[in-house]
Amino acid sequence: MLIQLLVSIVFLFLLLILLVLFFIRHQSKVPYYRLTQEQCVTLLKRAIQGVLPEYEWHAFLGMTVRDDDALDELRERCLLIGEFGIKGTQLINGQLCISFNKKGLSQLELLLDEWQHKLHYLV
C-alpha cells in the first residue's frame, strides 16, 4: 500500500515536470503581431470614419505587447476609449463596425494626430 502511494506521488511529480517543460518549450511559439506606425494610423483613421470592423478593434485591444511601451500605451489608451467612448456597432457592407460617441471620436482624433507625426516609428 505504501509502495503504491509512493509510486503514484513520483508519477504525478514526473508528469508535472513534463507539463512544465512542455509549456516552457512552446510558450515562445505563441503568435504575436508587430504593427507599424502606418498600420496604427490606418486603424485609427478607420475607427474615426466608422468603418473599422468590430473584430479588428477587439483584436488590437487584446493583442499581447511584450517589447514596446509606446504601442502598449496606445493600446491601453484605446482600451479606455473603448470603455467609455463606444456608442455601439453598425452594419456596414455586411460587417459589424464600431461606432464611437463624440468624446470617443475626439480622443481618437487626438491619438491619430499624435501617431501621424511620429517619425520613422516601428512598433
Automatic annotation (TrEMBL):
Keywords: Membrane, Transmembrane, Transmembrane helix. This is Uncharacterized protein. The chain crosses the membrane at residues 6-24.
